[in-house]
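anyone seen this seq b4? input:
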Amino acid sequence: MKKLCLLAIIPLFLSGCAAGEVTKVKVVMYNDVGDSLGTIELQEQSAGVKLALDLKGLTPGIHGIHIHETNKCDAPDFKSAGNHFNPDNKEHGLLHPEGAHAGDLPNILVKEDGTVKAELMAPQVTLRDGKTSLFSKEGTSIVITEQQDDGMTQPAGDSGERIACGAIKKK
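predicted toks r here
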């Protein structure tokens, strides 16, 4: 009987320990005039963080998207977001032999109607505590650029101006 009671208590204890851990967060993305473009949902996965994009109001075409090193998104240029999130001090670019920044992500394709629904993986980051956590002391953000990232050019892939930004914050 004592073993049965103990087995019933263990799952309650373990679930209480994990209750404070964030495994999913929504980031609201804004353009340079402060209009909401939709959301990007971040979810912890065994292979990193999955980003589920549901955006509208962007210019059609291929755009770069990156995780940046602060959670500030001051319009209109979003330079307050800082550089790409790069806790391991690597080179920029998914194609660079010495890269990539933890914040480097695949380009996104915006449809002719200005929408994008896509899923991306960020394998070098986490929502958990640690060096590669997106909830670092300075926080982090997601930035979309006007052009595609070429995957090699330092420091940001020659992807043009920043056109959208959203702060990553624990709710």
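Helices lie at 2-18. Residues 2-18 form the longest helix (17 residues). kinda curious what u guys think
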